[in-house]
Amino acid sequence: MSRRRRIYEGKAKILFEGPEPGTLVQYFKDDATAFNNQKKGTITGKGVLNNRISEYLMVKLGEIGVPTHFVRRLNMREQLIREVEIIPIEVVIRNVVAGSLSQRFGMAEGTVLPRSIVEYYYKSDELGDPMVSEEHITAFGWASPQDLDDMLSLSLRTNDFLTGLFLGVGLRLVDFKIEFGRLYENEEMRIVLADEISPDSCRLWDVKTNEKLDKDRFRRDLGGVAEAYQEVARRLGILPEG
Ligand code: C5P
């Protein structure tokens, strides 16, 4: 991985120039951060697991017609993706009260929401990813009303599909964060799912015991972080590479 041009390095991933124009290689690191970079650590083997889990979920979403940036997995830590123009908005979809929603409104974690809540956050490390409304997004030109419409409908389809998929393996999809990009192809632009979907970006609780099998184990120092990610992969039928 050394001689390729590094396009961007984030907290958990690196993007390298891809083998063909319009492609990138997404490399998954073991590094973990939380609370806007205030907490840092390493989860051994996380990159390998997230590469596989995100591949699995993106492929399944592609099969039901949700367009994604994913092309194919290249090796243990890398996947080939289409180059997109990332929209600087994190979309969070919540089915059960947890995390910042619980803190903001003083509601007990675990309260099932009568309908899913969609929130938008502006991606900015300096500002600490502030929550924004659709008005801010369109007024500041981060996304057009049409982009937002596409992002919302893809988010809801993704939530419906992933909720069922995880429930099928005994996991409750409490909430998750997704990102979108603009893909330019044949003089046309379409909005596609980008980044990753993994236990770094989802809250997943065991349906029977409510055990947390996601990054909250790292954020809250609960221990067994790598084991939790392995358990998610195992339940999805993703076996360790021999
Ligand atoms: O912290 P909060 O409760 O707002 O997080 C909601 C969901 O979004 C969680 O599943 C969390 O893992 C995810 N998230 C993320 N990246 C962020 C913020 C939240 O993946 N920067």
TrEMBL record:
Keywords: ATP-binding, Ligase, Nucleotide-binding, Purine biosynthesis. GO terms for molecular function: ATP binding; phosphoribosylaminoimidazolesuccinocarboxamide synthase activity. GO terms for biological process: 'de novo' IMP biosynthetic process; cobalamin biosynthetic process. It catalyses: 5-amino-1-(5-phospho-D-ribosyl)imidazole-4-carboxylate + L-aspartate + ATP = (2S)-2-[5-amino-1-(5-phospho-beta-D-ribosyl)imidazole-4-carboxamido]succinate + ADP + phosphate + 2 H(+). InterPro entries: SAICAR_synt/ADE2_N, SAICAR_synt_PurC, SAICAR_synth, SAICAR_synthetase, SAICAR_synthetase_CS. Residues 7-235 form the SAICAR synthetase/ADE2 N-terminal domain. Gene3D superfamilies: ATP-grasp fold, B domain, Phosphorylase Kinase, domain 1. Pathway: Purine metabolism; IMP biosynthesis via de novo pathway; 5-amino-1-(5-phospho-D-ribosyl)imidazole-4-carboxamide from 5-amino-1-(5-phospho-D-ribosyl)imidazole-4-carboxylate: step 1/2. PROSITE patterns: SAICAR_SYNTHETASE_1 (PS01057), SAICAR_SYNTHETASE_2 (PS01058). Coiled coil: none annotated. It is an enzyme of class 6 (ligase). Its EC number is 6.3.2.6. GO terms for cellular component: cytosol. It comes from the Bacteria. Belongs to the SAICAR synthetase family. NCBIfam families: purC. HAMAP family: SAICAR_synth. This is Phosphoribosylaminoimidazole-succinocarboxamide synthase.
